[in-house]
Amino acid sequence: QVQLVESGGGSVQAGGSLRLSCDASGLSASTWCMAWFRQAPGKEREKVADINAVGSTSYADSVKGRFTISRDRARKTLYLQMNGLKPEDTAMYYCAAGSWLCGGSGSPYWGQGTQVTVSS
How far apart are CA 47 and CA 16, in angstroms? Predict the structure, then answer.
């Protein structure tokens, strides 16, 4: 059973940085595709960044050049380094895993979320 636990959220001023972590357990080769999503109040959940089994990454246009997704396979941890934070980055951030992120049909796995609040 896959379990994802996020941490690292908090409150920062605009221009600040945070690093989110997602500790994963129960991952298999089919779940090596992972991603960060976020959802602001009253808005749809959106994908922020993803990383596939071979380490290729992609980003939403709104965070390109500011956010970096990475993974430590040995520690089974996913990271999201967020620099140059803006008030519009305020949201609940979720870790996700599963082959569905890479076009497969596997079950989606989600963490419980960690709140990021950016003040102006």
Answer: 21
**Residues 101, 31: Cα–Cα separation, whole Å:** 9
Please give the Cα distance from 69 to 82 (Å, whole number): 9
Of residues 54 and 80, which shows the higher confidence score? 80
Q: How crowded is residue 56: how many other Cβ atoms within 10 Å of its Cβ?
A: 10
Are 96 and 109 a contacting pair, CB within 8 Å?
A: yes
**pLDDT band, very low/low/confident/very high, at 95 (cuts 50, 70, 90):** very high
Average pLDDT over residues 5-11: 97
Question: Looking at this protein, which amino acid is placed at residue 82?
Answer: M
Within its chain, how far is the Cα of 102 from the centroid? 15
The closest of 13, 30, 8 to 97, measured between CA atoms, is: 30
pLDDT of residue 82: 98
Strands 10-13 and 114-119, sheet pairing: parallel
Cβ atoms within 10 Å, residue 105: 7
